[in-house]
Design brief:
Strand content: 35-45%
Helix content: under 10%
Largest sheet: 5 strands, antiparallel
Distance between the termini: 31 Å
Order of helices and strands: EEEHEEEEEEHE
Strand order of the largest sheet: 4-9-8-7-6
Number of strands: 10
Radius of gyration: 13 Å
Number of helices: 2
């Protein structure tokens, strides 16, 4: 599965289509309006054509949210060394509707944490 940001600068290639998409209502995911597919880092290739992504890390500093520095799209996040898990999450809002609509959605109450 291959996804790009709006301008095509950031390209994410996943080894497979996810079994589910997660919608989280925590303070940042709600604002980003992102829908996440979770992968092991080895299953995702991230590249750029012009400029590397920028990252925003806040709070407990366990997650680095990446965006395209040209068009601004939130593309993915990666866990940092402060996190117990090693995850790359792809923003499935970049996927075509025919792919995204065929995948079940799981609601996560991140606001409760």
């Amino acid at each position: 599965m291959k996804l790009t940001c709006h301008c095509g600068n950031i390209e994410l290639t996943a080894a497979y289509i996810p079994k589910e998409i997660a919608n989280c209502n925590c303070s940042i995911c709600r604002r980003y309006a992102a829908s996440w597919a979770y992968y092991e880092p080895k299953d995702v290739n991230i590249s750029h054509t012009q400029k590397a992504s920028g990252a925003y890390i806040w709070g407990d500093k366990e997650v680095a949210f990446h965006h395209c520095t040209l068009c601004g799209c939130i593309t993915h996040y990666v866990t940092t060394d402060k996190c117990d898990a090693n995850v790359t999450a792809i923003n499935m809002c970049m996927a075509d509707d025919e792919i995204k609509n065929a995948i079940p959605v799981r609601k996560i109450d991140g606001a409760a944490y």
